[in-house]
Specification:
It is a single chain. By secondary structure, the protein is mainly alpha-helical. It has a two-stranded antiparallel ribbon. Helix content is 54%, strand content 3%. Mean pLDDT is 82; it is low at 133-146. The chain contains five helices and two strands.
Length: 156
């Protein structure tokens, strides 16, 4: 199949497919007119590559484990080297730390949003109170609502 069809079937841009080819992640043959021709198996392979990239694996590691991806969504090592196992363990640890960091950031942003919503509700409630709650003829409330605090985020 040509690059356009592979792009359409995988939802991957042609430019990115060319990059995968440059990195040695996929390969094509060339037709006499110079067009790239990809085997049907590359549909699954591209989806595997995209999934591994989305999980945070760099292309240098993906290239090492591609021979072990004989089936979609499964990694099968006949004989995993100690180096490969150590590399994958390091990547797994890195992903776990990234997940923890993302969770902390999500929690900080959620807490900030809850505080902003709470303060907004207080302001709305203060405006709808009786005239005696206002700070005088101008109609401005006599108490000021503090400014929201910025969420403190970890580096991702």
């Amino acid at each position: 199949m040509r690059i356009g069809e592979l792009s359409e079937r995988t939802g991957t841009s042609r430019r990115l497919l060319r990059y995968y080819e440059e990195q040695g992640l996929i390969a094509s043959s060339r037709e006499p007119n110079g067009y790239r021709d990809y085997a049907e198996a590359f549909v699954d392979r591209v989806m595997q590559i995209r999934g591994l990239l989305a999980a945070g694996l760099p292309t240098r590691i993906i290239k090492q484990i591609l021979p072990c991806l004989s089936q979609p969504r499964a990694i099968h090592f006949e004989e995993a080297t100690p180096e490969m196992l150590a590399t994958l363990e390091e990547e797994c640890d890195r992903m776990t730390e990234r997940i923890r960091c993302l969770e902390r950031n999500r929690d900080a942003v959620s807490a900030y949003l809850a505080e902003v919503r709470r303060r907004k509700a207080e302001r709305v409630a203060a405006r709808t109170d009786t005239p005696s709650a206002s700070g005088g003829a101008s109609g401005t409330p006599s108490t000021s609502v503090g400014r929201g605090r910025a969420a403190v985020l970890d580096g991702v």
